[in-house]
Structures are given as structure tokens and as C-alpha cells.
Amino acid sequence: RAPMVLQVKRISVFSYLQDLKKRKPRGNSGTTVIVVEWHPAYITGQMQFGQDQRACKFDVLVGGYFGHDELVDLCVDATVGDRGKLGASMLVHHVRHALCQPSFVMAATRLLKWWAHRVVRPSEPFLKPRSFLLELLVLHAAESSARAAAKPYGPYELFLDALREITQWRSLCALWHWEVITTCNVAPPVLLDPMNPTNNVARTLCTAHWQRFGSLATLTLAMLGDEGGS
């Protein structure tokens, strides 16, 4: 791939699209037709340009100010294709949820991300677990591990438990509090988004990648000796 340098400046999406709509066509050969639909959480549109009226569709996720319960209802009622468009609106709730976690959970998450970067990535360049997946694995380990009540229990111990969660991916089924509106009727691994019951974050890795992910976690625990044992 050739290197490419881009100059990026911050612009208002609303102003930019309004400006596009105001532009006058420059003759028939350069006519551009822009259709924009404004929704509470996103903007969708289509541009047709050139003599052959080639079309380019676009979505801009601008986000909306929704209460969490209202946003969950929107996600549940939306079609599969439209749920992704609510991601920007869900982001603020994800951030709030992350900031409410205890310091040892955040520290363990940093350890797991470091492991993914320094161990997983060099071993499997095409295996790239998302940060959100790693965060939820740590959170699930913190909530489900019986060792959480034992002392001492800190970031390192939680990191080890998160690795164990990865090794047991075939039986992973984390519903959080969503069991009241959903059932674990999907084959594991299931790792629901704590803020969105329609989002199974475990699906961000395919089965083959989960297998390799689990193998690397098993190998890491073995290298750590008795401390990494179950």
C-alpha cells in the first residue's frame, strides 16, 4: 500500500450537508442530486452524480440524546440493518458504564489489552480482538468468578480469570441483566453488550479466531505456572 497523508479538519456535518444541498448543478454533465433524510440518531442519504447518474449512499452517525431505556427500546424494535446506526447514540452510555467500574477492573483491562497487543497480535496478525470485547471479558470475569470474594484479589488475579474466560469460550454465555428480555438460545459464545441486549459482542470473532484466542490464553496460563492454574 502506498503511503497517504491526509489533512483533516473538524467540520459540522449538519453545515456540510446543508452546503451540499445548496450547491447549484454545473450543467447536465456535472449534475449532482443529493437526497438527505434526517433521523434523530443518524443521517442517511444518497448522491447521484455524473452523466450516468451513478449513486453513492451514505450514513452519518451523529448520535442522539436518548435515555438508556428509550435507546434500548429503539434497538430492540429496529431492524438488524438499522441497529448499527444507533451506535453513536449508545456510545455515551458505554463511556458512563466504563467509568463506573472499580479501579482494579480498569487495571485488569489494561493488562488484558497489553497481552492482546504483545502476545496475541504477534502470534496471530489476523486475530484482532476489539477493545470492547476485552473489556467485557474482564467485566464478566469480575462478576462471575468465585475468586472475586477471596483476598488478595487485585488486577493481576482478575487478569488471570479473564484468560480463563477466554479458554472456556465454547461455554461462554454472559447475559448480564438482560435475561429478563432475552434467552441464551444462540450457540455460545454469547457475550451481550451490558448496554444493548441486541448486540452479541462475541460475534466480532469467528469460530476459528476464538479457537486460536483460547489456545493462546491456555498457553499463557501454562507459562505462568501455578499462579495461572484454575
From TrEMBL:
The residue ranges of the 2'-5'-oligoadenylate synthetase domain are: 108-217
Q: Which InterPro entries match?
A: 2-5-oligoAdlate_synth_1_dom2/C
Q: Name one GO cellular component term.
A: nucleoplasm
Q: Name one GO molecular function term.
A: double-stranded RNA binding
Which Pfam families does the record associate with it?
OAS1_C
Domain of life, per UniProt, equals Eukaryota
Could you tell me what this protein is called? Answer: 2'-5'-oligoadenylate synthetase 1 domain-containing protein
